[in-house]
């Protein structure tokens, strides 16, 4: 995974998630359908906390920015923020 800055969309994985989400929404899928498709496609596992956190936080930011934040994604992002596991992503 390449990173070029501290912003949430300054690495390859987050940009891929954002772009794939927007493309699938444009193709007519719902936020929930896209979330499942991306989760399966990126093979996200909780055993890799960094990738897990990046996935959910970038997906939440993307969904929020386009006005399609699903409850599931919001809950997962808040959980990551509340338990502090995402802090290392921004250090």
Task: List descriptors.
91 residues, mainly alpha, 4 helices
Helix/strand layout:
Elements: H1 12-26, H2 31-42, H3 49-65, H4 71-83
Helix pairs in contact: 1-2, 1-3, 3-4
Low-confidence stretches are none
Nearest-integer average pLDDT: 85
Give the termini separation: 17 Å
**Structural classification:** mainly alpha
Overall outline: globular
Query: What's the order of the H and E elements?
Result: HHHH
The Rg value, from CA coordinates, equals 12 Å
Mind summarizing the main beta sheet?
none
Query: How many β-strands, per DSSP?
Result: 0
User: Count of helices?
Assistant: 4
Percent helix: 55-70%
Strand residues, percent: under 5%
What do these coordinates show?
The protein has 91 residues and is mainly α. The protein is 63% helix and 0% strand. Helix 1 crosses helix 2. The longest helix is centred in the middle third of the chain and has 17 residues. The radius of gyration is 12 Å and the shape is globular.
């Amino acid at each position: 995974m390449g990173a070029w800055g501290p912003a949430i969309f300054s690495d390859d994985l987050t940009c891929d998630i954002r772009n794939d989400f927007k493309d699938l929404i444009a193709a007519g899928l719902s936020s929930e359908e896209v979330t499942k498709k991306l989760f399966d496609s990126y093979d996200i596992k909780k055993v890799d906390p960094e990738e897990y956190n990046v996935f959910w936080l970038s997906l939440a930011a993307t969904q929020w920015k386009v006005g399609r934040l699903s409850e599931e994604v919001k809950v997962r992002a808040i959980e990551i923020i509340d338990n502090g596991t995402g802090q290392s992503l921004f250090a």
